[in-house]
Amino acid sequence: MKVLVTGGAGYIGSHTLLQLLREQHEVLVFDNFSNSSPEALRRVKQLANADFEVCEGNIQDAGRLNEAFGHFKPDAVIHFAGLKAVGESAEKPLDYYAQNVSGSIELLQAMQRHDCRRLVFSSSATVYGEAKYLPYDEHHPLQPANPYGRTKYFVEEIIRDWAAAWQDASAVVLRYFNPVGADASGRIGEDPNGIPNNLVPYIAQVAVGRLQHLGVFGADYDTRDGTGERDYIHVEDLARAHLAAIAFSSTSKGCEAINVGTGRSATVIEMVKAFEQASGRAVPYKIEPRRSGDVARSLAAVDKAERLLGWTAKLDVADMCKTTWNWQSANPNGYRQE
Ligand code: WQD
Fold first, then answer.
1. Does ligand 1 have an atom closer than 6 angstroms to the CB of 84?
2. Where are the domains of the chain?
3. Which helix (H) or strand (E) holds 31?
4. Residue in 178, 225, 269, 324 to alter for ligand 1 test, most ligand atoms within 8 A of Cβ
5. Superfamily (CATH H level) for 2-181+232-261+300-313
6. Is the CB–ligand 1 distance for residue 124 below 6 Å?
């Protein structure tokens, strides 16, 4: 199948791209490299031993999208491209609405113009907000607590309306829990700009000696050990969920939102211990005050993914830490050469 992948050079995009190529799909990557590197694409080509097209452009650029769609004529789109830093989204909300919401509308319009009716969208469990109950199932109320989460929520709603209005359209909205880990090769992985906001990249940089210690944001939550509990999902499992969603979209109609998690959780301290075990390095930490906006616990209900997509997560926290360490130790500066 011909699949156009927006944001295909990014963390989750690059891992999904590798699996698409291994499954013999024809791919065009549409990316502006605003938070990713062409080096990731070069490495995916090597790993897959397969080629694909690249169109450098912003999804807000209707002309560029038109060129890509007109030339490639995709059967389906996987839409990863977007800004994703929660803190930054509160400082620059309009940038987030322009890039994530307006950009997604441009993409849907290009799909419509070129008669492409199948879409898989990168959403986030952050659309649920404060838990009314756990695990979060797909019927849980949607009350995102920050502009980033609201952009994902609005785009979900726009996609739902688009799919309802257009006969034969099929959209799958994947709500990711906490994606971590790297490809088993250690050649591609997460490469955050500057000091990482997220737990596992931060731990990895402490273990490799780039950062001195981890700040644990709160040890007084109502959890097993007082630290925040999350449903971490290996990026390789997550990538596989996209291939299952693309296959599902060939027989389904309308819009389905589906959680992508493991249904199991780990606390901050459990992740630190698992990472020490996997890396053989110490990860010193200090307990610090809670981070504003954090919830105590997050956990996915995973039965809908299994029922509709035939997909379940296979990899565990030990695999997540081991592959993160492989990637981080082989590429201490990420895709940068210095
Ligand atoms: C996990 C746990 C922190 C850093 C975020 C976004 C979400 C999605 C995934 C999407 C929490 C604790 C963290 C640190 C810590 N993003 N922590 N010290 O907040 O669950 O989800 O990333 O694109 O939308 O909100 O993930 O990795 O930041 O935090 O103690 O230095 O680790 O308090 O309990 P989070 P996270």
1. yes
2. 2-181+232-261+300-313
3. strand 26-31
4. 178
5. NAD(P)-binding Rossmann-like Domain (3.40.50.720)
6. yes
Q: Are 234 and 261 in contact (CB under 8 A)?
A: no
DSSP run (H or E) holding 266 = strand 266-267
Residue 331 in contact with ligand 1 by CB distance below 6 A: no
> Given this model, what pLDDT does residue 120 score?
98
- Counting as low any pLDDT under 50, the low residues of the chain are none
Tell which atom from ligand 1 comes closest to the C-alpha of 85.
Answer: 23
pLDDT at res. 270: 98
pTM, rounded to two decimals:
0.98
Q: So what's the pLDDT on residue 6? A: 99
Residue 253, exposed/middle/buried by CB under 10 A (0-12, 13-18, 19+)? middle
228 lines ligand 1 (CB under 6 A): yes
Task: Supply the pLDDT for residue 338.
Answer: 53
Tokens of 231: 């449903």
Q: Cβ(301)–Cβ(288) under 8 Å?
A: no
Instruction: Classify the phi-psi angles of 154: left when phi > 0, otherwise alpha if psi is within -120 to 50, otherwise beta.
Output: alpha
Catalytically active residues, by annotation: 148
